């Protein structure tokens, strides 16, 4: 019984059809599960002629003995020992539905198959590989000769022929197989369309208007284009389902034909390579404007455009083509050529009606009711070393080759025809047909003349079948591609009429071929070929496969194994997908993301991160949710002395004056912000604090009714809810700021305006309750009386901090953990966290599934391991650090897994990366809970601190979950628990009673990494920082430890980053030059006009790339800032506070290994670029500040006088470049004048005096308490020491000496557990460093 034949057609009220259909499908599946039996054995009763194989070991091992449980003769089938590509084929005699397989080894032997793949076909000329979830499925086989291994197929198949392809046998024996196939009879109604025919289903009335439709069918196409379904109405409605270049396109229009602005027709594309001579299923479900469109196992849900709900079709619905009315046999578009089966329209079996010649069905052309199996035989060149040779007779005055090819590769050898060849005399004449840049290139090459080339106009590397024909005749070459006119070229050579044999090479060169034949040929072809002819004689692929004709290597016969790796598109965030035969690539340019699948964000998540990179205030691009769905967007960052604000403006920036409004007819003003609502909500949610100022001045206008407190004015929050408070963060209190601060002009009222005075008063307030921000609309009511007036101004939304950056939890027991819902990360997962600990190892994160899992752990004191399993074996990545990671300091771990591979990075160490297997599983299916800081087994848990855990851009609230979890507490004690201690990216390092800032990775100095390191240069000054091998040795060792499967494109490459402050009036000049290996370099120069020019040379065989970022003159004597980052070929440049400008290089190679960084004058060297040499020879006159390239700060190294890697020539003096301490600029908030401000100024000295008095009193009290505690501590220590036995003095001295010498003393588990227990009981009063 075919599920597609069961169609339930019922009427439902509008809006309920989809949900009801879901219920019906669920009921049908339950019904089918209990009553639909399809597990009959299908092989047992087959005759011997139903079995075939690639070879047999002997007459006792024939394929007919391969029935399950057979013990006759040799006890099963075994291939010949020399058979490199064995297979066993079963003919089920008719199309059957196959649901399961079972296998055994060969009885009485050591032969069995431990792994195999499955092919299926309706004929023996076009095989299809069994796949599940777009993955080539490999079945586990047997481990002995007699045990039966049963596999239920994840999805059933309908086929006649099955082919089992053994991949691996018994290593100590051989391959042996017995098999059983389970399923049931499959019946269907089939119609064959010859490309000039169609079936018309005519309605009983003039037109049919439907609110819901269900169309289902299965098809097998012989060509890439053709109409499957079409219907239209006179008022403009239509539905069309057609194949276009092997893809199914559904076009649906429910509106009339009158054009409307902004309304476009609904068109949805699904599937790819559907002209592969295999069956594909289609289902269209529509209710009103909601549509579900399913092709095979992929479904797309969409909503039609316009306002109409019904589809009105006149007269008829056509299948197989669009006939032209009044002209029988004439069609508007190319007809479908192939077979359809089980074709249903709203419960009507169209093919069954046609077979029974019912009057509702009208047939045009030749429609038959059996499916023709005639199809061309294909061969797949699947590897770079694949080739096929075939003989050809040359004996006429002309020569021709024609064939069809299908590939994604832009380069590859198609055919080499040696027309003449004398190896001893080095004489040859050969015809070469190849792909070059996606176009077809025909070349005639000889020993005596330069080659003659002919190019096709169109490209053929698009995955479609293309017809190629090559002919040489009368000193002319002809190249024909598809239906294009042939391209003709004259040649001085011609083909002689002497009859002789020749060997044609298809797809590549055999190892045995002489170099003279293949010299200069392109790379091997990877793709499919069919219908191959030489001099009008077909190449018999069946004989080639049987090795009775020609030769071959690494080919798959009877199948075209091409795959569309861009369908579905795994490139995220709008990345453009392109592909070759074996893999796909994502072009992330312009998306704001990078990485193998455009998943990793290029931009920071908050302005707070830019402060850490020493960037001043200005306009920046932020990605508020990291790798989440929100697009990056420009915002304004405003840095004050202690905070970095994200400022979001709106369209109402000027003061607004209001008169004449009432409670019944209030004045309203809506605000449109520069960010979308989703971005605003993300910003507010992740920020530590947000506020918005409402400047409100009134005269004889109240905010609240003085009798009953009814609000006369209000505002709407971001969700549209009405709010009546005008200051602070207490939303439930109807008060103004003056009431909250206790300084209202009339203490009988909560707002100054409510005093209803005939004078201007101020009720300006600062809204800071985050859940209500930003303000969306304001309404003012009480301004209709004489003299009533209000002036208001809404300030921008201002937020600072990241509430999740220091969101942390402390784990005290090995068995403790936090649990969260399962990860939803089937295709892509990125994670980021910080940890600090003193233990030897521990699991940081784990999530399990039925077969899959993912785990991140501290595997040793100096190693972090990221391991995951998709169901086909674990994949592990480990980053080892040259220093201990259990040093009680914060360490940053980042990891990502996607369909192309995975990578892991710890701190600033080089990332470790690995490529995904080419035919591995893609989906990470996790079902269990996510464990943080522990495991489901409660073993090997983490003890220490975790913070800032984000998964796919979503931050987990560790503190909130830790409040209710035993063995875990929110927060983490220590000095380094804030991001404002060490500036400009400095690292906070815990010490016993304090902290220090490690500024070694920054361009700044001082105790808090806030001291600017700048220097003044004159025309002869030059500073060169030279890299040494020892400095990069650690990175090289880590890189060399990567496995052979690593792929550069799998993960993020270590990006080039540059920050540079400069001040000059001299041009032309060079600011910086970085030299890499060979002739590679990057140079930053100022041209004579004062504009900047960036030179990148990453490919020594090409000219340098020149980037010219837009800006005003930079030689104006002012301090300017350049920020540059490079990720592969993409370069992002920002000058001062302008928007980032994106450039694309011609090469994405690395500069590494680096040789030197030069500032100032350039003398000598191997740079050949004239502009760079000229700018460098003039020297630099001015000031350079805070120069940092990647992790190197050459200016800081020079000014510290501690580095032997820096060489200085000329005069170099320390300077401030006009900046007192930092490039950060202070931001000023402008507001309307506050009339109450003057009255408050006199209170400031009094407040300061009160503060001083309070400080003195507090100091005295603190001193008394401290003295008392010290006395009590001495007494307790004295009593405790006299109570317990004193340890031996020698051991105590030795232990103390070891502690003083070892900066990172080891901690035994018992000692750590004791310290944790002590810390747990006193952690509210005592600091403890984990």
Can you walk through the features of this model?
The protein has 1330 residues and is mainly β. Helices cover 12% and strands 38% of the residues. It is built from 15 helices and 88 strands. The strands form 16 sheets. Strands 1, 2, 3, 4, 5, 8, 9 and 10 form an 8-stranded antiparallel sheet that branches. Strands 11, 13, 18, 19, 20, 22, 23 and 25 form an 8-stranded antiparallel sheet that branches. A hairpin with a 4-residue loop joins strand 60 (842-848) and strand 61 (853-860). The relative contact order is 0.06. InterPro entries: ConA-like_dom_sf (IPR013320), EGF (IPR000742), FA58C (IPR000421), Fibrinogen-like_C (IPR036056), Fibrinogen_a/b/g_C_dom (IPR002181), Galactose-bd-like_sf (IPR008979), Laminin_G (IPR001791), Neurexin-related_CASP (IPR050372). Residues 1232-1251, 1291-1305 have a biased composition (Basic and acidic residues). Pfam families: EGF, F5_F8_type_C, Laminin_G_2.
Number of strands: 88
User: What Rg, in angstroms, do the CA atoms define?
Assistant: 39 Å
- What gap, in angstroms, lies between the N and C termini? 65 Å
If you average the pLDDT, what whole number results? 82
Shape: globular
Low-confidence stretches: 1-34, 259-263, 1030-1053, 1220-1258, 1278-1330
Structural class: mainly beta
Helix content: 10-25%
- Estimate the strand proportion: 35-45%
Helical segment count: 15
Largest sheet: 8 strands, antiparallel
